[in-house]
């Protein structure tokens, strides 16, 4: 075995021992064994102190050793084949015995992890005769591993063989430490830079806007990255419910996500506790977390494979808790301070931006309302200068925003209401509330507008009142509707009043003839009984008693007739209301009908002056003569003669009832040229009617108040004229009254002339025209 | 002695029937066709009369007549005895019913029975006589 072979064998042996040491035995002892072993093998050749043995020499050694240790600067030499050399500094530094350090023994002083690398590098340098440079850890004599930078240069002979190696070994532990620290700090810097970039990116996204949900996901992704967690969730606080709603989540089992859709303060989750306390909650291990024990939340953590969790409140700069961000780990985990600090940055930023986004959305929502509402919305300063003006205000008032902004609000207020504005502004300045009220405003074209006005103070961020916002609603339509409603209510009340009055009168009118008929019949019965008892068979005396009774029975008959007419009226009205008033139209002469009706009605009033005028008069008929009509007085209509007679009688009986007995009543029949109608009018000289009475006279149940009538005639049911109108209108005609209060009244009706029913003689038409 | 009865009704038929009934019963009868005429008679009458008063009349109605007479007496009740005849007793409103009760005025509904009228008149006559005697 050559020297080189022996040296290599030694190296292999040392490496094998080092490997087995790393596998399980304490490194110190192995190293010691190795040193001892190496020492016996190569002591003779690795000798550098043997020739110097004096005391001076020892003192020098000590000083030199101190220097080597102090500077960490080692010089060394080795033979060309590396099997021997001067390792004095090395032995001083490492405390290795010179014989132990020889050949490959120096490897024993190296950190076991570095030995193979060092052996390989030295072997390569020996083989290639090139510069040897390496750093490795060496166990110093005090047991501390130090980094050495080792360099060696081959000194060559003329034939190119290596005479020796000379080298240095420099303790570079300090530099290494600084380098490592630098590297670590660079790594951290890079990580933090990446995190910051991520935050910055999110900020950018937040500012740019867009979909809020996407934003939540981005924030969540960033939180998961920053926290190096496996899962995460983000929740929004609903203050009205005091509960958190899940906005975004990652990595959960869907059942857990569903369970945590809403989280309340009493929840056994970290986010529930964080909501309750307003501070971050860490659960490094959910299995040992006391507040989770026995809760459903724990089951759902397990379901999602969550072992550790933290929840950090999202608190805006204004101090408002807007939500929660949580991250979750599959293994128990205590988040690093640094990670939590970064998360806080993220959370603060996210909270602010979410709050801002919410505010922006709310204000966009308000702006949309302002733009789209049908109410005019305007604002003004405390001096009454208009500062904003929405689209509806433009529509309502006719001023564009451009025209009106900067103008005084007085422009919109009618001059007689300007003081109203002074009062409003004074109240505003005084900070007093202004009740919503209704008033009038003026449009650009001078039209008054009924508006409902709401005024609210506008405050600056410090709370000082700086103006007012007003909402004006056009209530013209509503006012109109209210008036219509009021009118219809009044009409209804009036109708009810008439109906009540009608019932009272109907009772009176119906019961009065009934009372008199009944009383008369009772009297007749009593007197008959008395007379028969008293006559004692004397026929003459009995007859004298009976004669007045005849008159009583006649009166009873009259009363019953009256009752019959009232009942007829009631039945007519019932038929009209039921739409069952039947007409039996015939081709008839209106003049005849009118004349006969007048004769019939006046028979009971022989003293009254009732005159026929117009066609009837021209026909040469005198009422008193009464009989056949003269030729040429025919006025043909298609009508129910009984019903037309009823109308004439009604008009006439009213005139007889209400007009003074000494004044004449005129009944006129005429045609209206060009209208194709016949017209019958009854004129009296009674008290007349007011316009209001005229307007309502033909209404059902209407009765003109305060009009005296002839005694004993009965006041009727107030149905007659409404029945007349129905009859005439059903015939295609019209009814009406013309009157001046105090100067009598003319009641008229028209009927369409029958086809070809022109007046029979020329003279009549001329007569009619003349009238 | 015969007691005078005033019949106030705008319906002549009713006045006539009542007159015959009361005269048959030996009362002396005075008629008034409306409230104003009745007021004149009552104000002028030295005697205390029994008054058969129709409520619903043109001009002055029966209840208005009573109110007027009460005002005349300066709070003192009218010395006459009244019987109100009405076709619609159900329309006597509470205020009027209270006044009628206070004045002790009986109400007779139309159509009336002659015996009921005679009984009411007899009762009123007795009341007046009791008052005069007291």
Task: Please give a structural write-up.
The complex is a heterodimer of chains A (771) and B (134). In chain A, 49% of the residues lie in helices and 20% in strands. Chain A is an alpha+beta fold and 771 residues long. The radius of gyration of chain A is 63 Å and the shape is rod-shaped. The N and C termini of chain A lie far apart (170 Å). Chain B has a single domain, classed as Response regulator (Rossmann fold, 3-Layer(aba) Sandwich), CATH 3.40.50. A 5-stranded parallel sheet of chain B has the order 2-1-3-4-5. Chain B is globular and about 35 Å long. The relative contact order of chain B is 0.16. The chains are: A alpha+beta (771), B alpha/beta (134). The interface between A and B is medium-sized, with 31 and 24 residues.
Mean pLDDT of chain A: 80
Domains of chain B (count): 1
Strand order of the largest sheet of chain B: 2-1-3-4-5
The name of the CATH topology of chain B is: Rossmann fold
Main β-sheet of chain A: number of strands, strand sense, barrel status? 6 strands, antiparallel
Mind telling me the C-alpha Rg of chain B?
Answer: 14 Å
Helix content of chain B: 40-55%
Regions with little confidence, pLDDT below 50 for 5+ residues of chain A: 21-54, 618-631, 757-771
Strand segment count of chain B? 5
Shape-level CATH architecture of the largest domain in chain A: 2-Layer Sandwich
Q: How many separate helices of chain A?
A: 23
Tally the structural domains of chain A.
5
Kindly provide the name of the CATH class of chain B: Alpha Beta
Beta content of chain A: 15-25%
What percentage of the residues of chain B does DSSP assign to strands (E)?
15-25%
SS elements, strand count of chain A: 23
3D shape of chain A: rod-shaped
Largest inter-chain contact set: A-B, 31 and 24 residues
The CATH superfamily of the largest domain in chain A is Histidine kinase-like ATPase, C-terminal domain
